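Before the break, one more example. Copy the sequence into your notebook; we will annotate it together after we see the structure.
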Amino acid sequence: EVQLQASGGGLVQPGGSLRLSCATSGFRFTGYAMSWLRRPPGKEVEWISSINTDGDRPTYVDSVKGRFTISRDNAKNMIYLQMNSLKPDDTAVYYCAAARSSYGSRRLNDYNYWGQGTLVTVSS
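Here is what the structure looks like once it is written out:
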């Protein structure tokens, strides 16, 4: 059974930091690019970051560049998202997802597996 379990969300003040984790199992982790996507309140799901299978080529949407860092641990089958300088606009449910390719994708239909999401709320 394929499982992606995102965790680490919570309430944080503007300017604060959070680290999201995604534990995976049930598929060949090293054969999948991994990504984080998010759904802000009342909006569509948007891609925010991907990391390739080797873990050496991260990509980011412009709105999080310089603030968020994606990483993966192929030995532990996990990915992470370090989020710094958080803004209220970062409030969303954050999802981890896996795409059967070397590199991630901005297209939601390219993802084979999704986690259940973890809520991040940025508010004072």
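The chain is about 0% helix and 50% strand. The mean pLDDT is 96. Try to locate both features in your own notes.
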